[in-house]
Specification:
Blueprint (H helix, E strand, L loop, with lengths): L8 E6 L14 H4 L3 E3 L4 E5 L6 H12 L21 H4 E5 L6 E6 L3 H14 L11 H12 L4 E6 L7 H16 L3 E5 L12 E4 L6 E2 L6 H11 L1 H10 L1
Parallel strand pairs: 3-7, 3-8, 5-6, 6-7
Antiparallel strand pairs: 1-2, 1-4, 8-9
Keywords: Cell membrane, Ion transport, Iron, Iron transport, Membrane, Transport
Subcellular location: Cell membrane
Membrane topology: Peripheral membrane protein
Length: 241
């Protein structure tokens, strides 16, 4: 497992002079307050309410590192829709002496495009994979199991969107295998299952800043626990309103 000074990405800094004054990025509270960020553990989670900026930052990290904005390996060059922000141009990634031998950027919202590209690339490699013949969750997990390995940097945006709770446990197992073999993960998620990964850093984008929080302090955990423990009363209160 990687030590803090061995992580492939140890941090980042934002050069705000490269971002337009009128940019919408300056209106996202957590992003606006960000000057630098440090990564200290092999697994880092970004959490927060919708619109808090977590996926915006994750995408910028991926693009600044060299990944295709829609996902895939560093070798993927396809593009179906150019929607990424200018933030990647203003990021300076801080890297250690240690170099990742592999990497993958995987996002649920553009997975169809990645699966299509994967089918074409695997044909060229002589090992064709037919991801579109499988269910969304099955093909998503297949891409992970085929592409995630040792000594890699893996950036995931809301992977739980494609996975059942049971498959999320499978993903945790895949993450654990990779981490034990010197891989690093940065993940945006709302899943209380994924957030339970041991000794991970959880960074909240709520309340206008990016700050570390404990697992039990995440809204994903608190709301899920509250709902499971008192479902009838919560639904009654919700519907009465």
């Amino acid at each position: 497992m990687l030590e803090p000074n061995e992580l492939y990405l140890t941090g980042l800094k934002v050069k705000w002079d490269k971002i337009e004054r009128c940019s919408y990025l300056r209106k996202i509270a957590a992003i606006k307050a960000l000057d630098e960020l440090t990564f200290n553990t092999p697994v880092t989670f970004f959490v927060g309410e919708n619109g808090s900026g977590k996926s915006t930052l994750l995408e910028a990290i991926a693009v600044a590192y060299g990944f295709n904005p829609e996902g895939g390996t560093l070798n993927y060059s396809f593009s179906t829709y150019d929607s990424h922000s200018e933030l990647h141009d203003a990021l300076r990634l801080v890297r250690s002496f240690n170099k990742a031998k592999w990497g993958y950027f995987l996002r649920a919202e553009s997975f169809y495009n990645v699966a299509s590209a994967e089918e074409e690339y695997t044909k060229i490699q002589g090992e064709p994979q037919h991801y579109h013949e499988k269910s969304h969750g099955e093909s998503f997990l297949s891409v992970i199991q085929r592409n995630f390995s040792q000594n890699g940097l893996y950036i995931l945006d809301e992977p739980e969107a494609a996975l059942s709770p049971q498959r999320q446990l499978t993903l945790l197992l895949e993450i654990s295998k990779c981490v034990k073999n010197d891989s690093q993960f940065i993940i945006v998620t709302h899943s209380p299952i994924l957030l339970g990964y041991p000794e991970a850093t959880i960074l909240s984008f709520d309340d206008g800043e990016i700050r570390p929080i404990g697992y039990e302090d995440t809204q994903s955990y608190q709301i899920t626990k509250m709902f499971i423990n008192d479902r009838k009363q919560i639904l009654r209160h919700l519907f009465e309103e």
